Amino acid sequence: KRFDRAVEAAKILKDRGIDFIWVLLGRGNLENELKKLVKSLGLEKEFILIGVKANPYPYINNADIFVQTSDNEGKSMVIDEAKILEKPIVVTNYMTVRDVIRDGENGVVADFTPESVAEKIMMIINDSSLKDRIISNLKHETIGNENEIEKYISLWRK
Rounded mean pLDDT of 129-154? Predict the structure, then answer.
């Protein structure tokens, strides 16, 4: 996953005067480099590294926008989870993304640059009709494996 792309997009948002907290869930072998980048860009207050959580759903549920800046994904369960929770989604244009995201309908697709990721986030922030359309479409979307999804929701509510 390209977390550096996310941090650099966060810097662009901060430079444009956007007030935000970017919460990063997960862990990887580049964590120390990521922490150094966050510090070097002065994003310690805006970019929070949470680590691995047994139950990520409260974090996703409390988000205004879900962002995934991957280079590659197979079947992205976390995108399904963001869809279930009806979060506007910003994803990079990796090879299989169009299998799960219809650009402008159930999320937005950014190029592989921090500038594009920041631009797509700002589109959702500034265009309430786009945000509302994405949320409305997600409410009516069938994700697949509905029984499994109901199990996730049940676990999350516990």
Answer: 80
